[in-house]
Amino acid sequence: MPVANLPLHLRSLSLDHQALSKILIEQENVLIIQDLDGVCMGLVNDPLTRVIEPRYIEAAKSFGRHFYVLTNGEHIGKRGVNKIVERTFQDSNLVQEQGLYLPGLAGGGVQWQDCYGNVSHPGVSDAELAFLTAVPQHIADCLKELGKQAKYELDANRIEAYIQATVLDNKVSPTVNLNVFHEVFRDRPKLYAHLQQEIQKLMAQLLEQAQQKGLGDSFFVHYAPNLGRDAQGQEIMQPSQGQDSGTTDFQFMLRGAIKEVGVLVILNHYYYLHTNSYPLGKDFNARQAPRQHKALLDLVKANFDPQIMPTIVGVGDTVTSKAIENGNNLEFRRGGSDRGFLELVQAMGSEFNTGNIVAYVDSSDGEVKNRKPLPLDRSNPEELRVKEGPGDFRDTEDPLTLNIVFPGGYQQYIDLFAQAARGRVSL
Predict the structure, then answer these.
(1) Which of 254, 275, 305 finishes a domain?
(2) What's the total number of domains in the chain?
(3) pLDDT single digits (tens) 112-129
(4) The pTM is what?
Protein backbone atom coordinates (compact mmCIF):
# COMPACT_ATOMS: atom_id res chain seq x y z
CA MET A 1 0.00 0.00 0.00
CA PRO A 2 1.41 3.45 -0.86
CA VAL A 3 2.53 5.37 2.22
CA ALA A 4 0.05 8.16 1.48
CA ASN A 5 -2.80 5.65 1.80
CA LEU A 6 -1.68 4.24 5.14
CA PRO A 7 -3.54 5.34 8.27
CA LEU A 8 -1.57 8.08 9.99
CA HIS A 9 -0.74 5.93 13.02
CA LEU A 10 1.11 3.50 10.73
CA ARG A 11 3.28 6.14 9.09
CA SER A 12 6.64 7.49 10.17
CA LEU A 13 7.88 11.10 9.91
CA SER A 14 4.85 12.05 7.85
CA LEU A 15 4.24 15.63 6.76
CA ASP A 16 0.57 14.99 5.99
CA HIS A 17 -0.76 17.60 8.38
CA GLN A 18 -4.15 17.61 6.72
CA ALA A 19 -4.58 13.95 7.66
CA LEU A 20 -4.09 14.87 11.32
CA SER A 21 -6.39 17.87 10.96
CA LYS A 22 -9.10 15.62 9.51
CA ILE A 23 -8.86 13.28 12.52
CA LEU A 24 -9.01 16.14 15.02
CA ILE A 25 -12.01 17.66 13.25
CA GLU A 26 -14.08 14.60 12.42
CA GLN A 27 -13.36 12.10 15.18
CA GLU A 28 -15.56 12.76 18.20
CA ASN A 29 -13.74 10.48 20.65
CA VAL A 30 -10.29 12.03 20.45
CA LEU A 31 -7.97 13.16 23.25
CA ILE A 32 -5.01 15.51 22.74
CA ILE A 33 -2.25 15.29 25.37
CA GLN A 34 0.34 17.95 24.66
CA ASP A 35 3.63 19.27 26.02
CA LEU A 36 4.06 23.07 26.15
CA ASP A 37 7.55 24.55 25.85
CA GLY A 38 8.78 24.15 22.28
CA VAL A 39 5.41 22.82 21.13
CA CYS A 40 3.07 25.82 21.36
CA MET A 41 5.70 28.46 22.11
CA GLY A 42 9.37 28.91 21.28
CA LEU A 43 12.19 27.78 23.52
CA VAL A 44 13.95 30.78 25.05
CA ASN A 45 16.95 31.27 27.30
CA ASP A 46 14.91 33.16 29.90
CA PRO A 47 11.53 31.52 30.67
CA LEU A 48 10.17 34.90 31.79
CA THR A 49 10.17 36.04 28.14
CA ARG A 50 7.97 33.22 26.84
CA VAL A 51 4.97 34.20 24.69
CA ILE A 52 1.83 32.28 23.68
CA GLU A 53 -0.35 33.38 20.78
CA PRO A 54 -4.00 34.13 21.64
CA ARG A 55 -5.25 31.99 18.76
CA TYR A 56 -3.59 28.95 20.33
CA ILE A 57 -5.22 29.57 23.72
CA GLU A 58 -8.62 30.10 22.09
CA ALA A 59 -8.20 26.91 20.05
CA ALA A 60 -7.32 24.93 23.17
CA LYS A 61 -10.45 26.27 24.84
CA SER A 62 -12.62 25.22 21.92
CA PHE A 63 -11.38 21.61 22.12
CA GLY A 64 -12.86 21.50 25.62
CA ARG A 65 -12.60 18.14 27.36
CA HIS A 66 -10.67 16.71 24.41
CA PHE A 67 -7.49 18.68 25.23
CA TYR A 68 -5.05 18.57 28.17
CA VAL A 69 -1.49 19.71 28.70
CA LEU A 70 1.23 17.55 30.26
CA THR A 71 4.35 19.50 31.14
CA ASN A 72 7.35 19.41 33.46
CA GLY A 73 6.91 23.16 33.90
CA GLU A 74 4.22 24.60 36.13
CA HIS A 75 0.91 26.38 35.88
CA ILE A 76 1.49 28.78 38.76
CA GLY A 77 4.20 31.13 40.02
CA LYS A 78 5.91 34.04 38.29
CA ARG A 79 7.41 31.66 35.71
CA GLY A 80 4.28 29.55 35.34
CA VAL A 81 2.28 29.26 32.15
CA ASN A 82 -0.74 30.96 33.73
CA LYS A 83 1.20 34.24 33.86
CA ILE A 84 1.97 33.92 30.15
CA VAL A 85 -1.71 33.35 29.37
CA GLU A 86 -2.68 36.39 31.46
CA ARG A 87 -0.10 38.57 29.68
CA THR A 88 -1.46 37.41 26.34
CA PHE A 89 -4.91 38.84 27.11
CA GLN A 90 -3.71 41.56 29.51
CA ASP A 91 -6.62 40.79 31.81
CA SER A 92 -6.40 38.03 34.43
CA ASN A 93 -10.08 38.46 35.35
CA LEU A 94 -11.10 37.85 31.74
CA VAL A 95 -8.93 34.74 31.54
CA GLN A 96 -10.50 33.30 34.67
CA GLU A 97 -14.07 34.21 33.80
CA GLN A 98 -13.84 32.73 30.30
CA GLY A 99 -11.85 29.68 31.39
CA LEU A 100 -8.84 30.36 29.17
CA TYR A 101 -6.18 28.73 31.36
CA LEU A 102 -4.66 25.57 29.88
CA PRO A 103 -6.14 22.53 31.64
CA GLY A 104 -4.12 19.50 32.59
CA LEU A 105 -1.04 18.44 34.49
CA ALA A 106 2.12 20.36 35.29
CA GLY A 107 5.13 19.57 37.47
CA GLY A 108 5.46 16.31 35.53
CA GLY A 109 2.05 15.15 36.73
CA VAL A 110 1.52 16.40 40.31
CA GLN A 111 -0.05 19.80 39.67
CA TRP A 112 -3.60 19.59 38.33
CA GLN A 113 -5.49 22.57 36.92
CA ASP A 114 -8.85 23.13 35.26
CA CYS A 115 -9.47 25.80 32.63
CA TYR A 116 -10.53 28.30 35.32
CA GLY A 117 -7.17 28.18 37.06
CA ASN A 118 -8.21 26.04 40.03
CA VAL A 119 -4.98 24.26 41.05
CA SER A 120 -4.38 21.29 43.34
CA HIS A 121 -1.45 19.01 44.20
CA PRO A 122 -3.01 15.58 44.74
CA GLY A 123 -0.87 13.17 46.74
CA VAL A 124 1.70 15.78 47.82
CA SER A 125 2.35 16.24 51.58
CA ASP A 126 2.89 19.49 53.46
CA ALA A 127 6.39 18.32 54.45
CA GLU A 128 7.31 17.77 50.81
CA LEU A 129 6.00 21.18 49.80
CA ALA A 130 7.92 22.81 52.65
CA PHE A 131 11.18 21.18 51.55
CA LEU A 132 10.62 22.23 47.94
CA THR A 133 9.99 25.82 49.01
CA ALA A 134 13.54 26.07 50.36
CA VAL A 135 15.26 24.53 47.32
CA PRO A 136 15.45 27.66 45.08
CA GLN A 137 17.38 29.61 47.74
CA HIS A 138 19.83 26.71 48.14
CA ILE A 139 20.42 26.76 44.40
CA ALA A 140 20.84 30.54 44.28
CA ASP A 141 23.34 30.49 47.16
CA CYS A 142 25.35 27.79 45.43
CA LEU A 143 25.45 29.73 42.15
CA LYS A 144 26.55 32.88 43.98
CA GLU A 145 29.50 31.01 45.51
CA LEU A 146 30.42 29.40 42.20
CA GLY A 147 30.18 32.79 40.48
CA LYS A 148 32.87 34.15 42.80
CA GLN A 149 35.42 31.62 41.57
CA ALA A 150 38.07 33.35 39.48
CA LYS A 151 38.17 30.66 36.80
CA TYR A 152 34.66 31.54 35.60
CA GLU A 153 35.68 35.18 34.97
CA LEU A 154 32.11 36.37 35.44
CA ASP A 155 31.16 40.04 35.54
CA ALA A 156 30.26 40.68 39.18
CA ASN A 157 27.60 43.15 38.07
CA ARG A 158 25.89 40.51 35.94
CA ILE A 159 25.93 37.52 38.28
CA GLU A 160 22.63 38.41 39.97
CA ALA A 161 20.88 38.74 36.59
CA TYR A 162 22.28 35.38 35.50
CA ILE A 163 21.00 33.76 38.68
CA GLN A 164 17.55 35.33 38.25
CA ALA A 165 17.29 33.76 34.80
CA THR A 166 18.74 30.43 35.93
CA VAL A 167 16.89 29.60 39.17
CA LEU A 168 13.25 28.79 38.47
CA ASP A 169 11.41 28.92 41.78
CA ASN A 170 8.60 26.60 40.77
CA LYS A 171 6.38 25.37 43.60
CA VAL A 172 6.69 21.61 42.96
CA SER A 173 9.59 21.46 40.50
CA PRO A 174 12.31 24.00 41.38
CA THR A 175 14.70 24.05 38.46
CA VAL A 176 18.17 25.11 37.39
CA ASN A 177 18.07 26.26 33.76
CA LEU A 178 21.62 26.72 32.42
CA ASN A 179 20.71 28.23 29.05
CA VAL A 180 22.00 31.67 30.04
CA PHE A 181 25.32 30.27 31.23
CA HIS A 182 25.65 28.22 28.06
CA GLU A 183 25.50 31.48 26.12
CA VAL A 184 27.94 33.18 28.50
CA PHE A 185 30.44 30.34 28.13
CA ARG A 186 29.81 29.68 24.43
CA ASP A 187 33.49 30.32 23.64
CA ARG A 188 34.64 28.47 26.75
CA PRO A 189 32.76 25.17 26.65
CA LYS A 190 34.97 23.53 29.29
CA LEU A 191 33.79 26.06 31.86
CA TYR A 192 30.16 25.37 30.99
CA ALA A 193 30.79 21.62 31.29
CA HIS A 194 32.35 22.18 34.73
CA LEU A 195 29.37 24.24 35.87
CA GLN A 196 27.05 21.52 34.61
CA GLN A 197 28.90 18.98 36.77
CA GLU A 198 28.70 21.29 39.79
CA ILE A 199 24.93 21.54 39.42
CA GLN A 200 24.67 17.78 39.19
CA LYS A 201 26.57 17.55 42.50
CA LEU A 202 24.22 20.13 44.02
CA MET A 203 21.19 18.05 43.05
CA ALA A 204 22.76 15.02 44.73
CA GLN A 205 23.33 17.09 47.88
CA LEU A 206 19.68 18.18 47.93
CA LEU A 207 18.56 14.57 47.67
CA GLU A 208 20.83 13.75 50.61
CA GLN A 209 19.31 16.59 52.65
CA ALA A 210 15.83 15.24 51.90
CA GLN A 211 16.97 11.82 53.08
CA GLN A 212 18.11 13.31 56.38
CA LYS A 213 14.67 14.88 56.87
CA GLY A 214 12.89 11.57 56.35
CA LEU A 215 11.95 12.38 52.75
CA GLY A 216 14.30 9.95 51.06
CA ASP A 217 11.59 8.49 48.86
CA SER A 218 9.99 11.81 47.96
CA PHE A 219 12.16 13.30 45.21
CA PHE A 220 14.22 12.65 42.12
CA VAL A 221 16.15 14.75 39.61
CA HIS A 222 14.85 15.15 36.07
CA TYR A 223 17.48 16.05 33.47
CA ALA A 224 16.42 17.67 30.20
CA PRO A 225 17.57 16.55 27.76
CA ASN A 226 18.79 13.25 29.14
CA LEU A 227 20.19 9.90 28.05
CA GLY A 228 17.37 7.75 29.37
CA ARG A 229 17.55 5.84 32.65
CA ASP A 230 20.18 3.63 34.26
CA ALA A 231 19.67 0.16 35.74
CA GLN A 232 18.33 1.71 38.95
CA GLY A 233 15.77 3.76 37.04
CA GLN A 234 17.58 7.07 37.62
CA GLU A 235 17.79 9.51 34.72
CA ILE A 236 21.21 9.94 33.11
CA MET A 237 22.55 13.44 32.59
CA GLN A 238 23.71 14.25 29.06
CA PRO A 239 27.21 15.77 29.42
CA SER A 240 28.09 18.84 27.43
CA GLN A 241 30.40 18.17 24.47
CA GLY A 242 31.88 21.12 22.62
CA GLN A 243 29.06 23.41 21.52
CA ASP A 244 26.44 20.78 22.42
CA SER A 245 25.00 22.01 25.71
CA GLY A 246 23.77 18.57 26.76
CA THR A 247 21.52 18.75 29.83
CA THR A 248 20.45 22.33 30.48
CA ASP A 249 17.52 21.80 32.87
CA PHE A 250 17.98 20.17 36.28
CA GLN A 251 14.55 19.76 37.85
CA PHE A 252 14.16 18.73 41.47
CA MET A 253 10.88 16.86 41.31
CA LEU A 254 8.50 14.73 43.31
CA ARG A 255 8.71 10.99 42.77
CA GLY A 256 5.85 9.84 40.60
CA ALA A 257 6.00 13.11 38.65
CA ILE A 258 6.79 11.50 35.33
CA LYS A 259 4.78 12.25 32.25
CA GLU A 260 3.79 8.70 31.39
CA VAL A 261 1.98 8.44 34.74
CA GLY A 262 0.30 11.74 33.91
CA VAL A 263 -1.28 10.08 30.88
CA LEU A 264 -3.23 7.80 33.23
CA VAL A 265 -4.31 10.68 35.46
CA ILE A 266 -5.66 12.55 32.44
CA LEU A 267 -7.33 9.45 31.02
CA ASN A 268 -8.96 8.71 34.38
CA HIS A 269 -10.45 12.23 34.32
CA TYR A 270 -11.47 11.91 30.65
CA TYR A 271 -13.44 8.74 31.38
CA TYR A 272 -15.18 10.43 34.30
CA LEU A 273 -16.39 13.24 32.04
CA HIS A 274 -17.84 10.68 29.64
CA THR A 275 -19.18 8.07 32.08
CA ASN A 276 -19.51 9.86 35.44
CA SER A 277 -17.18 7.22 36.90
CA TYR A 278 -13.42 7.17 37.55
CA PRO A 279 -11.89 3.83 36.40
CA LEU A 280 -8.99 4.27 38.85
CA GLY A 281 -10.99 6.03 41.57
CA LYS A 282 -11.66 9.71 42.19
CA ASP A 283 -8.48 10.24 44.25
CA PHE A 284 -6.06 8.47 41.91
CA ASN A 285 -2.92 10.53 41.39
CA ALA A 286 0.58 10.29 39.98
CA ARG A 287 2.12 9.45 43.37
CA GLN A 288 0.13 6.20 43.56
CA ALA A 289 0.87 4.78 40.12
CA PRO A 290 3.61 2.36 39.12
CA ARG A 291 6.47 3.85 37.15
CA GLN A 292 7.34 0.98 34.83
CA HIS A 293 5.97 1.15 31.31
CA LYS A 294 4.52 -2.38 31.31
CA ALA A 295 2.88 -1.95 34.71
CA LEU A 296 1.22 1.27 33.56
CA LEU A 297 -0.08 -0.42 30.43
CA ASP A 298 -1.37 -3.36 32.47
CA LEU A 299 -3.19 -0.93 34.77
CA VAL A 300 -4.95 0.62 31.77
CA LYS A 301 -5.87 -2.79 30.33
CA ALA A 302 -7.32 -3.94 33.65
CA ASN A 303 -9.44 -0.86 34.40
CA PHE A 304 -10.46 1.09 31.29
CA ASP A 305 -13.41 0.08 29.12
CA PRO A 306 -12.03 -0.43 25.59
CA GLN A 307 -15.36 0.69 24.09
CA ILE A 308 -14.79 4.20 25.46
CA MET A 309 -11.05 4.43 24.84
CA PRO A 310 -10.32 7.54 22.72
CA THR A 311 -7.83 7.98 19.94
CA ILE A 312 -5.01 9.76 21.77
CA VAL A 313 -2.80 12.28 19.99
CA GLY A 314 0.41 12.79 21.96
CA VAL A 315 2.42 15.90 21.06
CA GLY A 316 5.97 16.59 22.22
CA ASP A 317 9.30 18.07 21.17
CA THR A 318 11.95 16.39 23.33
CA VAL A 319 13.04 12.96 22.15
CA THR A 320 16.69 11.93 22.08
CA SER A 321 18.84 8.98 21.05
CA LYS A 322 22.60 9.06 21.55
CA ALA A 323 25.17 6.51 20.41
CA ILE A 324 27.63 5.36 23.08
CA GLU A 325 30.70 3.42 21.97
CA ASN A 326 31.11 0.09 23.74
CA GLY A 327 34.19 -1.57 22.28
CA ASN A 328 33.39 -2.30 18.66
CA ASN A 329 29.67 -1.92 19.26
CA LEU A 330 27.32 1.00 19.59
CA GLU A 331 24.82 1.24 22.39
CA PHE A 332 22.00 3.76 22.20
CA ARG A 333 20.82 5.81 25.14
CA ARG A 334 17.26 6.87 24.48
CA GLY A 335 15.77 9.71 26.45
CA GLY A 336 14.03 13.05 26.27
CA SER A 337 11.36 14.33 28.64
CA ASP A 338 8.55 13.51 26.19
CA ARG A 339 9.70 10.03 25.21
CA GLY A 340 8.07 8.13 28.07
CA PHE A 341 4.58 9.51 27.63
CA LEU A 342 4.74 9.27 23.84
CA GLU A 343 5.85 5.63 24.01
CA LEU A 344 2.96 4.87 26.37
CA VAL A 345 0.47 6.61 24.07
CA GLN A 346 1.82 4.55 21.18
CA ALA A 347 1.60 1.28 23.13
CA MET A 348 -1.96 2.01 24.27
CA GLY A 349 -2.98 2.63 20.66
CA SER A 350 -1.63 -0.78 19.68
CA GLU A 351 -3.24 -2.50 22.65
CA PHE A 352 -6.70 -0.98 22.18
CA ASN A 353 -6.54 -0.63 18.38
CA THR A 354 -7.47 3.05 18.62
CA GLY A 355 -4.96 4.41 16.11
CA ASN A 356 -3.14 6.63 18.58
CA ILE A 357 -0.85 9.19 16.96
CA VAL A 358 2.56 10.46 18.07
CA ALA A 359 3.31 14.00 16.83
CA TYR A 360 6.75 15.64 17.06
CA VAL A 361 7.39 19.37 16.88
CA ASP A 362 10.89 20.50 15.85
CA SER A 363 11.90 23.06 18.49
CA SER A 364 15.48 23.56 17.27
CA ASP A 365 14.84 26.99 15.73
CA GLY A 366 14.81 28.96 18.94
CA GLU A 367 17.16 30.61 21.38
CA VAL A 368 18.02 27.26 22.97
CA LYS A 369 20.48 25.60 20.62
CA ASN A 370 20.56 22.05 21.97
CA ARG A 371 18.07 20.41 19.61
CA LYS A 372 18.85 18.57 16.42
CA PRO A 373 16.78 19.96 13.53
CA LEU A 374 14.88 17.58 11.30
CA PRO A 375 16.85 17.28 8.03
CA LEU A 376 14.69 17.81 4.97
CA ASP A 377 15.02 16.35 1.46
CA ARG A 378 13.99 19.05 -1.03
CA SER A 379 15.21 17.24 -4.15
CA ASN A 380 11.66 16.67 -5.36
CA PRO A 381 9.82 20.04 -5.42
CA GLU A 382 6.53 18.14 -5.54
CA GLU A 383 7.18 16.26 -2.31
CA LEU A 384 9.11 17.57 0.68
CA ARG A 385 10.42 14.68 2.77
CA VAL A 386 11.97 14.34 6.24
CA LYS A 387 15.14 12.28 5.89
CA GLU A 388 15.50 11.20 9.52
CA GLY A 389 14.15 11.83 12.98
CA PRO A 390 15.68 13.74 15.91
CA GLY A 391 17.59 10.74 17.27
CA ASP A 392 20.75 9.08 15.99
CA PHE A 393 20.14 7.84 12.43
CA ARG A 394 21.95 4.59 13.27
CA ASP A 395 19.40 3.76 15.97
CA THR A 396 17.22 1.62 13.75
CA GLU A 397 15.61 -0.24 16.65
CA ASP A 398 14.21 2.78 18.49
CA PRO A 399 10.78 1.59 19.74
CA LEU A 400 9.21 5.05 19.36
CA THR A 401 7.70 5.92 15.99
CA LEU A 402 7.06 9.59 15.29
CA ASN A 403 4.00 9.34 13.07
CA ILE A 404 3.79 12.98 12.06
CA VAL A 405 6.33 15.78 12.40
CA PHE A 406 6.36 19.56 12.24
CA PRO A 407 9.75 20.71 10.90
CA GLY A 408 8.41 24.28 10.86
CA GLY A 409 8.29 24.29 14.65
CA TYR A 410 5.62 25.54 16.99
CA GLN A 411 4.24 28.05 14.47
CA GLN A 412 3.48 25.26 12.02
CA TYR A 413 1.87 23.18 14.77
CA ILE A 414 -0.28 26.10 15.94
CA ASP A 415 -1.45 26.68 12.37
CA LEU A 416 -2.81 23.13 12.23
CA PHE A 417 -4.13 23.19 15.80
CA ALA A 418 -6.09 26.40 15.22
CA GLN A 419 -7.38 25.18 11.86
CA ALA A 420 -8.60 21.92 13.41
CA ALA A 421 -10.29 23.77 16.27
CA ARG A 422 -12.20 26.00 13.83
CA GLY A 423 -13.23 23.00 11.75
CA ARG A 424 -14.37 21.02 14.77
CA VAL A 425 -16.54 23.87 16.05
CA SER A 426 -18.15 24.33 12.64
CA LEU A 427 -19.34 20.73 12.43
Answers:
(1) 254
(2) 2
(3) 999 999 999 999 999 999
(4) 0.89
